[in-house]
Design goal:
With about 210 residues, the chain is mainly α. It has 5 helices and 2 strands. It is about 70% helix and about 5% strand.
């Protein structure tokens, strides 16, 4: 009994969809490899998954995918991308070349790979290093001065706070002494002996 026909439609369950993608992807790549070997064909394959991951296969030839696309353009006259994408590709190439050049310059500034430089290039490199060293020293001096000013300001603030604390301590001690003095004076007034008043009743009896 043969298998029933499978309806081709989007698999809603994400797990099942990923499993099916992995199986079908491997199957397509396997077929591409088989036709490459059996028929001596040049096969290029690009699969973009819904997750954004790209799978690429290129047959064992030394041709890159870009070279195969260029040959496709020349043979068919069809463009797989418009002028906008062409300009973007050129811009990416330009940026890559600039980055490569900057990497070379960085190695030269670090003293690496300089054996191929001529006298003029070595002179330019020496001048660049001297200018950079002067700039670094100037910046270092600025940082040191800022640190010194900050340290001096911190010391001045520390001295000011100590002075304010000393003043407050002296004032508190004076207040305590005043309080103790008034307290003693109050106690002395309380225990002071009062003068003896005459006994008027006894004087009246004598009369």
């Amino acid at each position: 009994m043969g298998r029933g026909k499978i309806e081709i439609k989007r698999i809603e369950n994400s797990t099942n969809r990923q499993v099916t993608f992995a199986k079908r992807k491997n199957g397509i790549i396997k077929k591409a490899k088989e036709i490459t070997v059996l028929c001596d064909a040049k096969v290029s394959l690009i699969i973009n998954a819904s997750s954004g991951k790209m799978v690429e296969y290129n047959s064992g030839s030394r041709e890159t995918l870009l070279e195969i696309l260029d040959r496709y353009h020349s043979q068919t006259g069809k463009k797989l991308w418009d002028a906008k994408h062409e300009n973007l590709s050129n811009e990416l190439d330009r940026i890559k070349k600039e980055n490569d050049g900057m990497q070379v310059q960085l190695r030269h500034l670090k003293g690496e790979d300089i054996t191929s430089l001529n006298h003029s290039e070595l002179g330019d490199l020496e001048e660049a290093l001297e200018n950079g060293l002067t700039s670094v020293r100037g910046k270092k001096s600025e940082v040191v001065q800022v640190q010194r000013d900050s340290h001096k300001a911190a010391e001045e603030e520390h001295d000011r706070l100590n002075y304010e604390l000393h003043k407050q301590t002296v004032k508190t001690e004076e207040n305590l002494r005043d309080m103790e003095y008034h307290q003693r004076m109050s106690q002395m007034s309380f225990f002071r002996v009062q003068p003896i008043q005459p006994n008027l009743h006894d004087d009246h009896d004598r009369e």
